Amino acid sequence: MQGATLSRWTMSYFALACLMLVAGQGLMLAGYGYPAVAVGAPESLALVHILAIGWLSLLMAGALLQFVPVLIARPLVGGRFAGPALLLLVAGLCSLVGGFVALSGAIDLPIVLLPLGGGLLLVGFILLVAILAATLLAARPLPLPARFVAVGLAALVGAALVGFVFTLALSGISDSLLLDRLVADGVDLHAALGLGGWLSVTAIGVSYRLLAMFLLAPEMERMTSRIVWWAASLAIGFVAACIPVILLAVSGVMGLFSAALLLTLAAVVLYGSDVAHLYRTRKRKQAELNIRATFAAFGALVLSIALVNLPAVRAGEGLAAVVYLFVFGWLTGLGLAQLYKIVAFLTWLEAYGPVLGRAPVPRVQDLVDEGRGRVLFWFYYGAVAAAT
Question: Is the dihedral angle over the CA atoms 89, 237, 336, 388 positive or is it negative?
Answer without folding.
Answer: positive
